[in-house]
Amino acid sequence: MSGTVIFSKLIFIGALEQGFIYALVALALFLSFSILDIADLSTDGCFTLGCVVSAIMTVNGYPVLGLLVAILAGVCSGFVTAILQTKLGVESILAGIIVNTALYTINMAVMGFVANVNIFGCDTVFSKAKIFLPDEYYKLIIVVIIVIIVGVLLSFFLKTKLGLSIRATGDNVYMVRASSINPAFTITVGLCVANSLTALSGGILAQYQKSANIDVGTGMVTIGLASLIIGETLFGKRSIRVRIVGVVLGSCLYRVIIALALRLNIPADFLKLISASIVAIAIIIPYMKKKTRFLINRRVSKKEIENMYDQEDL
Asked: Domain check: are 282 and 257 in the same one?
């Protein structure tokens, strides 16, 4: 099988489209996991929430409003998670699990207690913009524009006084409290923003694939972490702007890898294993680099000490 057949232009464009959609989840985890240092496990349910809300609004003829309502639903999810952590003393991991479990029922209720919602034949943000854009690239252009807007706004937000307070909260919550900044407020704002991005990603995906189902968010934490860690491995922890770009490119690279795996006839049931392996490898690489550098420096230092003793003996 030739290389062109294995990975065609159409497949590559599709991988990029999905990469930019899921990049919003990666940016959400960048904010909660990397900046706030909080393991938010409500991501799966929040993604599904945005997906089903957007689908229902689209069915009723409001695709653009559907994305806005999805964002608002994500904010509500993040707010509940934050309240459990900051006001009720629930650990971050447990708070995420509780909210994620509750969201399953909420998502089913939004869908009318059916497992799937189809929006074929309904206008979406993609079909509305298609008349102004090239047929082959209109979906890619739309998701790129959305991600660029979100990335610029997030970069600007994290450089404001509130954004700097959120970053400081993740670095040292005790120092923030000593500086008369309320960490409960910064954590709440950070989680609301992060979950709004997750829900927006789900909302866009619903209109992109013209359907929503109750299990669409399963494994979204793993996908987001894979994209996040790939980006941080490639670009390192530099400026906020560079890190945001790295997260987005990491998401695209992850989707390209998954698309390539599918084209190599790897069973779809193995994709979760591949995702977990990518996360593990991306985490191990920086550690191995650091350990290798340490061993090399130790060997050099040992040689220098031996040479010094040899010179003294002479």
From this structure: no
Contact 21, 201 (CB under 8 A): yes
Residue 263 makes CB contacts below 8 A (sequence gap 6+) with: 6, 7, 11
For residue 282, give Cα distances in angstroms to 171, 228, 237.
23, 9, 14
**Same domain, yes or no, for 212 and 284?**
no
Q: Please state whether the predicted TM-score (pTM) of the whole model is above 0.70.
A: yes
Whether the predicted pLDDT of 300 surpasses 80: no
**Angstrom distance (rounded) from CA 204 to CA 141:** 13
* Residue type at 265 in one-letter notation: N
Residue 275 near residue 219, CB atoms below 8 Å: yes
- Asked if residue 238 and residue 142 are part of one domain, the reply reads yes
Amino acid making up residue 19: G
pLDDT digits (tens, 9 = 90+) for 228-271: 888 888 887 788 999 999 999 999 999 988 888 877 777 777 87
Total structural domains in the chain?
A: 2
Contact between 76 and 44 (Cβ < 8 Å): no
